[in-house]
Specification:
Elements lengths: L3 H12 L3 H21 L4 E7 L13 H8 L3 E3 L2 E2 L5 H10 L3 H4 L13 H5 L6 H7 L3 E7 L21 E5 L9 E4 L2 E4 L4 H4 L1 H15 L6 E6 L37 H4 L7 H34 L6 E7 L4 E2 L6 E2 L5 H4 L3 E4 L7 E3 L3 E2 L3 H9 L14 H4 L11 E6 L18 E4 L5 E4 L4 E6 L5 E6 L6 E5 L16 H15 L12
Parallel strand pairs: 1-8, 1-9, 2-13, 3-14, 4-5, 4-8
Antiparallel strand pairs: 2-12, 5-6, 6-7, 9-12, 10-11, 15-18, 16-17, 18-19, 19-20
Length: 518
Amino acid sequence: MASSGARTRQKQRQRTPNVGVRAALFLALFTCTLRCSECEKPSNIVLILADDQDVYLGGMTPMKKTKALIGDAGATFSNAFTATPLCCPSRSSILTGQYPHNHAVRNNSLDGNCSSPLWQKGPETTAFPVYLSKQHYQTFYAGKYLNQYGKKETGNVGYVPPGWDQWHALMGNSQYYNYTLSVNGKAEQHGDNYEKDYLTDLILNRSLHFLDDRSPQRPFFIMLSPPAPHSPWTAAPQYEKNFADVKAPRDGSFDKPGKDKHWLLRQPSNPMPSTSLNFLDNAYRKRWQTLLSVDDMVEVLVKKLEELKELNNTYIFYTSDNGYHTGQFSLPIDKRQLYDFDIRIPLMVRGPGIKPQQTLPAPVLNIDLAPTFLDISGLNLSFVNMDGQSFLSQMAPELRNGTARPYFLVEYTGEGHLDPDPACPKLGPGLSQCFPDCVCEDAYNNTYACVRTLVEHNLQYCEFADSESFVEVYNLTSDPHQLENIVKKVDPTLLQAMNQRLIKLQSCEGDSCRATKI
């Protein structure tokens, strides 16, 4: 007869599973959990941000692969706009999802708050990569960031903005060769060797390494910001002879006098001298040449995602920070103006739930990119203070419900110099971006705010902060090239309504910027 101690030990063995069985159960449970987490992993996101690429004047023409691999495979937005037509404030709007009057970056200068300590301590701390990082995204940045980034006054290259796991950012403004990168806070010098240094190719290759090294269990966000097609327009060697016969388009507002426009548009010589025409044609050609490398970038990146079996779970966005002009209203080359050629931008997106070959007319702004990324990540957007709105519902209505905005704001703060341009002393102080023939593209009082609507009417109403309190109004249905300022012809009640909308948009913040009725 078994003793009572033996019987007790036998009962304990019956109640307690074998250690090996427990280990097997734990492994099965862990594997199941891992598989479920992989199934529920949020989608990856890729943003390719060109620099100064227009859509109005044929800027997407060289991008045949990009249009096929992103636009034809998803959605092309025919009414995409920047909230401000200049690099640093526009990029700040992309990062924060805010209008310039809320993130306070006014222009490309340090005094204009571009990458300044004030920006770093304020708006940059709530930029979208910070939220994506909290959503457990692996984040990667490469290319141009903000125009003043890396300067001594902004913390040198040792400063890495919050939210980025991998950081390969250009110091200063766009370059193709002979530049300095901040690589995770350490300076990396580059020369003029095409294979080693051409910036468009380099940032692509760095992103491919990131994809190889990342954790497949977590989603990723990649932002690539090539210099193209920004000046100095240095094409890759294999593309230097492309588009030899191409010239800037001569239709629309090309070389038309700005007789009823703000004084800055009334000062260029008309018709333009041959020297200006030759200059802008050359710039137009070279811009296209640089974009061919960006087109290659898109192709290689899409193939890589396909090889990794991540393409079907990745949203790919292609856009630009602002538009551009080459000869419109006799202005040689630049951006900064309120007209469609400077404020319209390309925008194409492919990804889960987006049906191919869509052209979507709903107006979308660059301040909408950040909330769209966060929406894709699964974040509750009520937790963030952004002026923009997610446009995931526009691209993939089966995934989200939403409405298009009825009108929106475009605002810009002009740049100038205290002293007159030495080459053009008669023009006096307060101007900038002056060309040898004394045509200036910007001035302190080229400061304006516009309300734009594409619902019911395709109208633009703009007010300048100058001594004239100058107003420009355009009906883009009948006048798509904005040739005639109709401020003196339009119904006064409509002018008053647009003015009231503008006043409220200029002080809006968060939800009030998205109000459907003002």
